[in-house]
Write a structure and sequence with these properties.
mainly beta, Jelly Rolls, seven-stranded antiparallel sheet, about 5% helix, iron, Pirin, RmlC_Cupin_sf
Length: about 325
Amino acid sequence: MKILSTAPLGPQWPTLDPFLFTAHHKDYFPSGNDDMSISVPLNGRNIGSDFSGKDGWSMYHGRKIPGFPYHPHRGFETITIVDEGMADHSDSLGSAGRFGDGDVQWMTAGKGVQHSEMFPLLNTNKDNPLELFQIWLNLPKKSKMVDPHYKMLWNEEIPIINEKDNDGNTVEIKVVAGQYKSVAPLSPTPDSWAADLNNNVAVWRIKLSPNALYNLAPTEKGTNRVLYFYNGDSVQVEDKLVHENTCFQVDETESISIKAGNSETYVLLLQGKPIGEPVAQHGPFVMNTREELQQAFDDYQQTQFGGWPWDKQEMVHDKDKGRFALHADGTLEEK
């Protein structure tokens, strides 16, 4: 049996070890004000915790600007893929950045970091659509208390492979993580579970043109492998045809056929060998035991993981700023 299980997709997607969960944000934000805030009334929303999707968008934990004001993490990693729109990052190490339109941010929280992820509405005379994936990748016990690390994978540098099926239809594979045939990905953060190739971690976005057929090659036994169909009118995985957002856990040792319907179709692949350790999680902290969780809360109360060096909780950067990454050591990347 090639398909082991299926499940419907909501805003938060189910995952398997070594992943913890994936959030998919698809928002059709209206035009912004000059300060990059929402330009329309916020009546009828639970401001501070708005996940309503009202009118096609949510404020999340933002009050004037949508997004996630400063909050802590410990014991895992975030991989943030922004396919459309922009995200502004700021953290307790003094790092900052603006990234989007295909860029990926990889952040190892390790022993603790505070950060904010805000969605600046840069367009004042048209809508501000946003599509963002945040993937939580666990860390093994040996790495849960490493120093935090923040890295940008710029869209222009991420490998993209184009293939054709027997009928000339195109398949595009964006290799965020994990070797694809002979193509190596950009390096993840150094303490990541993905940094060891033996762990067989892969994050690939597969885009199929209408009616394209793609055969996913088998991989090493013992790897958890899940396909997420999130955009398109339909997809057929092996003999199962679905018309709505669905995930498929598939047998990693088998070749898997993926056929698009009559529209462009998008599938995200997440795979990796399981860490296989106990998971104790409460909100933004992911450890191995309840005692370690309590220690995480105690440490945060005492140190604030370095405090908050920025003047706003909803930290956004200058409106005319382009894509950039400022690292804690002062290194600046600009795109």
